[in-house]
Amino acid sequence: MVQGRLREKLTGKRFFLVLDDVWNRKQKEWKDLQTPLNDGASGSKIVVTTRDKKVASIVGSNKIHSLELLQDDHCWRLFTKHAFQDDSHQPNPDFKEIGVKIVKKCKGLPLALTTIGSLLHQKSSISEWEGILKSEIWEFSEEDISIVPALALSYHHLPSHLKRCFAYCALFPKDYRFHKEGLIQLWMAENFLQCHQQSRSPEEVGEQYFNDLLSRSFFQQSSNIKGTPFVMHDLLNDLAKYVCGDICFRLEDDQVTNIPKTTRHFSVASNHVKCFDGFRTLYNAERLRTFMPSSEEMSFHNYNWWHCMMSTDELFSKFKFLRVLSLSGYSNLTEALDSVGNLKYLHSLDLSNTDIKKLPESTCSLYNLQILKLNGCRHLKELPSNLHKLTDLHRLELINTGVRKVPAHLGKLKYLQVLMSSFNVGKSREFSIQQLGELNLHGSLSIRQLQNVENPSDALAVDLKNKTHLVEVELEWDSDRNPDDSTKERDEIVIENLQPSKHLEKLRMRNYGGTQFPSWLSDNSSCNVVSLTLDNCQSCQRLPPLGLLPFLKELSIGGLDGIVSINDDFFGSSSSSFTSLESLKFFDMKEWEEWECKGVTGAFPRLQRLSILHCPKLKGLPPLGLLPFLKELSIGGLDGIVSINADFFGSSSSSFASLEILEFSRMKEWEEWECKGVTGAFPRLQRLSIKDCPKLKGHLPEQLCHLNDLKISGCEQLVPSALSAPDIHELVGGSLLSAFLQVAFEKLASLQVRGFFRGRKLDEKLLNNLEIKLNSIQALADDAELKQFRDPLVRNWLLKVKDAVFDAEDILDEIQHEISKCQVEVEAEAESQTCTCNVPNFFKSSPASSFNREIKSRIEQVLENLENLARQSGYLGLKNASGVGSGFGGAVSQQSQSTSLLVESVIYGRDDDKEMIVNWLTSDIDNCSELSILSIVGMGGLGKTKLAQHVFNDPRIENKFDIKAWVCVSDEFDVFNVTRTILVEVTKSTDDSRNREMVQERLRLKLTGKRFFLVLDDVWNRNQEKWKDLLTPLNDGAPGSKIVVTTRDKKVASIVGSNKIHSLELLQDDHCWRLFAKHAFQDDSHQPNPDFKEIGAKIVEKCKGLPLALTTIGSLLHQKSSISEWEGILRSEIWEFSEEDSSIVPALALSYHHLPSHLKRCFAYFALFPKDYRFHKEGLIQLWMAENFLQCHQQSRSPEEVGEQYFNDLLSRSFFQQSSNIKGTPFVMHDLLNDLAKYVCGDICFRLEDDQVTNIPKTTRHFSVASNYVKCFDGFRTLYNAERLRTFMSSSEEMSFHYYNRWQCKMSTDELFSKFKFLRVLSLSGYSNLTEAPDSVGNLKYLHSLDLSNTDIEKLPESTCSLYNLLILKLNGCKHLKELPSNLHKLTNLHSLELINTGVRKVPAHLGKLKYLQVSMSPFKVGKSREFSIQQLGELNLHGSLSIQNLQNVENPSDALAVDLKNKTHLVEVELRWDFFWNPDDSTKERDEIVIENLQPSKHLEKLTMRHYGGKQFPRWLFNNSLLNVVSLTLENCQSCQRLPPLGLLPFLKELSIEGLDGIVSINADFFGSSSCSFTSLESLKFFDMEEWEEWEYKGVTGAFPRLQRLYIEDCPKLKGHLPEQLCHLNDLKISGCEQLVPSALSAPDIHKLYLRDCGKLQIDHGFTLKELTITGHTVEAALLEQIGRNYSCSNNNIPMHSCYDFLLRLEISSGCDSLMTIQLDIFPMLRRLDIRKCPNLQRISQGQAHNHLQCLRIVECPQLESLPEGMHVLLPSLNYLYIGDCPKVQMFPEGGVPSNLKRMGLYGSSKLISLKSALGGNHSLESLEIGKVDLESLLDEGVLPHSLVTLWIRECGDLKRLDYKGLCHLSSLETLILYDCPRLECLPEEGLPKSISTLHIDNCPLLQQRCREPEGEDWPKIAHIEHVYCK
């Protein structure tokens, strides 16, 4: 990403770059560095400096310039500059003569000349110069010691006291940045400072030492900016280490084992060594004097946490000679032990940035202590009382601590300097302000709670005026107060007495209550002030003449409600004022109306930044365009501004000449921006932001030549058209953080929240300050979001910011909850008193209540946290966008659950790949005995899954395999789960087994002998043993079985033993363009604008042939309509992201980057969902709503509507897609996009997918548990740290009410509700041990969504009704829940109540009054009493589907009218049901007719079902056009109705089912409604059980049923005549029980399924399309087969066996084929199922050749059948099911027995049991065996049944008396034994049953049941171990 930005900046530019001090010898790294540099314009040049000629060669230098030593004349000039401080001065000849010789010895080395010159400048005599000339140090060998002699000589000639100070720097790492004060303090603590003169303090001596070393060039300042740290050249650092390395040791490597015994001074580089073993490392250094950490910089603000394995007690005990001890940033220090008092030599103790809570009294025995640092110890509340005994203490630092009280007598310490950032004045004398008077305060000081100063003379005692070392002062009163006149006067005296010193540079006054500012602000007393803040001084009515402060650079004025006008007095001078001011801010000035500047000239000559915010009455702006150097202007919350016109510009020809950033925000009344007549304005404007200005109309200024960043939001009437901005890069919407902030801003702006503060007399300034702080953070958000991808420190900062923002939102939510609670209480009270008050004062409360104090305290804490984070932004290099969108926000793993379904019919660029794989699958080359495996290998997003889907659905492989299965494996490779999933796919039924061996055996049995094709999608597993385990049951498949594996990992392809590895390549250019164009232009054949095409081609090139990237970026660009937007995306630096570092595909990151901030938040929420997750739109939108992600600015749009828009926006941008093209199917997300969601939001979203996870991060706000993986988790252990959790939900593989997994948690719900009080979303759906919701649910006062679906709760507690913020309540599937709490109507914010499949019959009163509430409930059972009346439904806003049952209980039809179904437009599915046994008389029939008329549904209805209706005629609304949108209609058992409505006129009707209408005799043209066009959309038509129906009259009707695919007519015995003839799309026809119907001459070219039972003959064309045929009943013409094969009709009843029916896959023949004697299987070569029943003359089934496809053979009631096919064990290799029932002549199986792959077999109705032993032979696959109706007393001889048997069913064996144990004991796989209707069966075997049995059914076996009764039955001990025993 950085490289991309650099390349973008350099492209086409001619640049000159210097790379100084290069050491790298790695050529590859150098080439990587050059990559972005190569795009510079020709002539670009780089200069490299290096000490290494090899480096010069490696960098590819065109020219190597070896820098020679300086020539003599230059050497002399440089030397004299430092030695004589003047290079032009002519020195004394004697000095010059010696100097020349010294210069010669420096050998032309500049650093040596500089240092030695600086040394000689200190020498004033000839002899001293001669001594240096003659020094033997010049003879040092650099080769031996790597020390430059001249530097060594400079060191040698340092005074000894400076040598020691310099050498001490050996402790600091190279490039260490240090501050002067900190280094001097260390010198002082080490006793390096010689204070011979008592008049000079050690600090003054230290400063002299420091300046001496600085003047000698031993170190230098890192920049020329005041206050920046100092650095030392690395050669000088080497020198320090050389001269002092024996006693100074710095630890920079975790691997160091120990340090020398001579070591006296030790430092640990905490930025490199996070944890070191103290004893192991420091074992020998017992006489250590110094122990301290060092990070990259010596700074209080910049530190690294570090850890030591040695305890502090051990440290204090072992190293008793310590002088300097620093444990700053020591992460596990919470207590300083008494043993610290053992360090009697200690001079400096630094415990800053630790979690200590107190200092032990033993600290006061450290009598040599000079320096004590406790900065950042926030938990430290007090200091030891005897601290004054430390008489040598020079410095006490207490910045950002919790200390409020200064120990007595501390001021008596004459040397002591105190630094404390804040002091809170208390009400008692103990915390009096007077304490400060005796202290020698330095640095900055904030004095707070000044209202507690009761005696103004106390303030005078502070003596601020003489505290000359204080450079920064803040004076603050409490914001939560309302001073009267006397306290205002006292405040004025107090502030006068707190006059600071004239040396003050920075002053802040907050919440001052006086009416006038102090006099010292108006005279020259504060002439040196550089920064001034006046905040919330509400009573002041006039500003001082601040324009006269000569050095004032920053001025901030806010909350001065007494200021109405700012006039000339403010400026102080009409001609020259604010001469140095650079930044000016006005904010929250509620009463300010006028800014009068007329007559003032020359003001603000240097002003660069101006901000005017929240000044609602300000009516006009001065001519700001005339400010010559103004760069940033922010205007917001000025409700008095209606128009901004030419006066704003100040000049019509040239205004805002320097302005770069302009922001307008929250200008509610602003309507017009008049720019006509103004030219040349904004010539340098780069960023423009206009937010939340809803009334602003018109256009933007047109000529903004340098604008590159435009941000517009919440300006519905603004038309940003015709904008000329050639440099615009991004037109985007904001960062993810901005989305979080937006929620907070909306809540801060809430009138209710503001009213709450006023009503409770809380200081509204707290809200304003919070908004300001959040705005300042938002200004950094965009830059931080972009930098997080490459800088982990920025990513960590973002995490902390989000945490603070969440804290702020929590507070505002708590206020909102309090408001809702008060409203409900007041309304309840008003109702009870019948009060008529219009405006209840529900804010009224005691100002000093605990709730108020808590809110105030928490806001202050958040403000402090935000302040700290804002300060840190500088260290991170974050750029402040001044509130204007900086262009980094965006108008823009978890793996989606792949299935075999095709989502898109076209796959681009993969035709050759598909052809190759299909050929491999269909060829017999690899059909060896071993399993064949092909692996498709490629990176994520390459289209592996889509390719496999197209192969899987290719018709060419349809008949090549017996079994096809698709399994998505994903990265959680659990052999058991994968095996079970394969088994489920193979059997198409669920399997709940928990035993891996059992599941594998079942799968093996299913696949044995079968040729299967299996796709294993997205395999990650590299464990070969796991793969072998998975293959075990697969290896028994038939030869030719094949597996296709898709994976990203070539190693995986090798491990799985692939016969062929197909590496999927990137798409070629032409295919890339087609795929891109399809999404970017929504038409892959369209020829786009040439300019778009040119840019698009370049973007396509950047996608590097990756289909997912092309799809996503194409969808993004479809939203962009201008060339500049396309160019901005082309130039984006995100293209340069390193995928190796972040695992994020740049194109996807770019698409995310360009999402609007509100969509970023919705997308990032997907980090919660587990892999393979399928979600439904409605459920996801509800979650977004509950999380407050939906911005409903327009009250006309509901949150649900906004959510649908968001969802569709993300869908259109390809961030997810529907899992198939079938309506209603769930949606999925690609795994790379889920990885991206997890990357951007993984810090706050955590999904638990592993039982082994011990705990989750403290920052986690959203938590989900994957219930399909984690069946039980330890709640407290896992969630220990995440106390501020907002989301707790279970998630299975799909977000669905019908699809869920049961799971458990070791934490009780009561604990859950008590611990996580900040929850917004709580889902316990499927929680198996939840039977009761405890009252503590009422503690969850922030809760927005509660889902208790699919649990066993029986009631909801009344405390649920106190969840005033609840939006969503889901109780689906709670079948034991009978009623709801009576006060549910108090949940005034409730939007959705779901009651599907519950036991609830009664709706609580007043629920319909909730204006937002949508209710989903089905069914509703009408009761006989008024309590359960249908009227309850009338007041509800019902959604989704509704079944109203027991309508016979509606006694008064007007009750039905009250339901008002006609206006329930959100009901899309309705069932109207009377009782099945309803037998109405005439009067009740009439009532039913009125009831159903009154239940007319809405015209939006899509599905209607009417059951057991008793009226004689259907309702009128079925005859007119009221239900135009109905798609599905069912009329069932409406027995009295005599005429059908004209249903053919329903234009969208797809499914029509008519059943049990006994009153219908004829269906005629009325049914069609039109003679020329009817049932235009109908696909399925079914008639059932129409006993009186005789005629279907359709003559004269043409064009009916043009799309009909399914036609079923069943049990209509009187129906005569024919079917409609032209049914071109019919593929499924079923005629049953219609003996008089003659379905002849049917033209159905697409017919696939035909079922005929008891009907006349059928003549059908195009019979070769038939796949399934069922013939049953005595009137069926068996010659149909002949007719189908040869297309003619025959009347005999025999199957013609001389045709080939290779099109049939399934054939069933039952009854009516009396002449059928033989069935030849050879004429049905593709048949898979053959079912023959009741063919009385069938004698044999013959077969001459192998039949590879027949899987099921069922023969029942064929009494003449004598034998089964000969050689069936060989000729039927695929047979897996065989059933022979009531075929008494079948006594033996053919020789060879049954096929070896047979899985299920049934033998029923043989008087003698067929010889099973010979039948089963070598079969080891049989899983299920049913034996019934045999005449034997004993069954199952030894060795008859195979070991593989899982289920054994013995039924209706009347003579059976006993079971033989020997026939059962070997069945180790047997799980289920069923014994049914064996009345003489006496007992179980004495030895019992096989131990493997887990289920035993005993039914209708009275003797055995008596013996198996629990617990007294004689056989009970034999079966007590069985898990499931059923005795009936």
Automatic annotation (TrEMBL):
Ranges of residues in domain NB-ARC: 3-87, 912-1084
One Pfam family this sequence matches: NB-ARC
Biological processes per GO annotation: defense response; response to other organism
All residue ranges annotated as the Disease resistance N-terminal domain in the record: 740-828
SUPFAM superfamilies per UniProt: L domain-like (SSF52058), P-loop containing nucleoside triphosphate hydrolases (SSF52540)
Tree of life domain: Eukaryota
Domain Disease resistance protein winged helix: 171-240, 1168-1237
Xref: Gene3D superfamilies: 1.20.5.4130, Helical domain of apoptotic protease-activating factors (1.10.8.430), P-loop containing nucleotide triphosphate hydrolases (3.40.50.300), Ribonuclease Inhibitor (3.80.10.10), Winged helix-like DNA-binding domain superfamily/Winged helix DNA-binding domain (1.10.10.10)
A GO molecular function held by the record: ADP binding
Keyword Lyase appears in the UniProt entry: no
Keywords: ATP-binding, Leucine-rich repeat, Nucleotide-binding, Plant defense, Repeat
Domain R13L1/DRL21-like LRR repeat region: 433-559, 1430-1556
Name of the molecule in the record: NB-ARC domain-containing protein
Species for this entry: Glycine max (Soybean)
Lineage: Eukaryota, Viridiplantae, Streptophyta, Embryophyta, Tracheophyta
